[in-house]
Structure of Glycosyltransferase:
Amino acid sequence: MRRDKVITISLCMIVRDEEEVLARCLDSVHDLVDEIVIVDTGSTDRTKDIAARYTDRIYDYEWTDHFADARNYSFSFATQDYVLWLDADDYFLEKDRLKIKQLKQELDSAVDSVVMEYHLAFDGYGNPLAMSRRNRIVKRSRQFRWYNPVHEYLLVDGNYYLTDIAVSHGRVHENTGRNLRILEQIVERDGEVTGRDIFYYANELSDAGRFSEAAEQYRRFLDQPVEYFEDNLTACARLSACYHQLGRFDLKLTALLESLVHELPRADFCCSIGQCFLEKEDFGKAIYWFKLALEQERPPDHHFGVLNLICWTWLPHLQLCICYGMTGELELAYEHNEKALAYLPDDANLLQNKAKIEQALGLGGAEPE
């Protein structure tokens, strides 16, 4: 990258009742940015008091059930070269903080958007279990805007810079039903949601445990023309999960196989399809799909969909251990358990598997107490 000057960054956030997590977020980023803009949408706890420790740029915003409008309002107060956005339950680990410091020194001013990883969940070793990517830092002069009242998105074009810098997500709040309420207001007003909002509506219904209604909306979404195939893949996966909850195991497998209409086999879908056959005790087919998962490469860096990372690491090996154990092929079971242990060396279940298989094979292992 060509360095013209050290870039400056405005952090812009919208918050409401975030006293449990806001300090963690701002502690991890306050010294990396040149100004902090906090837009409060109606907090009744200590959120604004905590924010005041880091900035005096705190603005009130009357909530209108429209996330994009609130985010655009926060962006309107930015004055620096670039704008970084975070949610209050996001934060940067130290390794990522160091990368941001370097980024500020080196970023080419021709870059319009810096893409970062978004780590959504973690295992006991701190390794990410699931991730996606987001346009996280955007050039202020381009005046990029947010769209959509719920599940808002930042519409960006121009020169992208892909990085391995990660924003870590540590959710504290449970689902409050706010998003579902907003979408149901749209349904009541307009008769139905349309386009991509069908997908979001289905997600909210599923999160609320309304699986039959969610399945109907996922089906509506999948039956319309494809605009962004990653949404269709996620819809297939979540539709399958709804059918599982409804006891429709035949349709569960069908929904997973529908993913192959939109994309070549991916490890996460291979594992889910394999699990369907494992549950049927059809071990031959299960082994086929778990082995196929091991052959898949992770999608490229420009991939923005959610990835269940364990399907590209230890999960297929664990499931193959189970399959081969059930078919009596203990040497193969042992081999795959060892490969899973390479990722999770202290996992109690894997260590127990190891001891049991060693004992069965006469390798001198003993079953742990």
